[in-house]
Amino acid sequence: MVRQSATKTAKKVLPDLPVVDDKAIDFETIESLFFAYRDFVSDPDAILAKLGYGRAHHRVVHFVSRRPGMTVADLLGILQITKQSLARVLKELIDSGYIRQMAGPADRRQRRLYPTLAGRELSLALSEPQSRRIAQAMQGMSIGERDTVRRFLQGMQKQTVDMPLDEEGAD
Length: 171
Hints:
about 5% strand, mainly alpha
């Protein structure tokens, strides 16, 4: 008799999905955001790929360059990732000479992060095509229209979306 593994015999139970009126979903904007993000990161991705790096490296180099002297804890808070996720990326960037880590002046246990000249140059090289893409997209827009775009993007950040409760499953 052949025994099947537990994973093959166990039936997957999917959670009940909420009933959603798909006519109320703004698919056009959702897809525009997907495609805009894909294209926005494509130029830096190509530069990073030549170095054997990915988007996590880009985010670290970007924020350390924008806020020199930030602590590792600050960076973890901005990126909203675990120490373990950051550790590998940060080590690679330090070992490659893009980021410098120094003890804090008041608390020697505190680790402060600074871009090296190479790190600053990498950050600028990654940001330049993105800045060009933004300038092209906003070309011909009034200052008010540009402010509207920025308000929209700020409004998209850090939102919590309430999921409707399934009335039958609610207690």
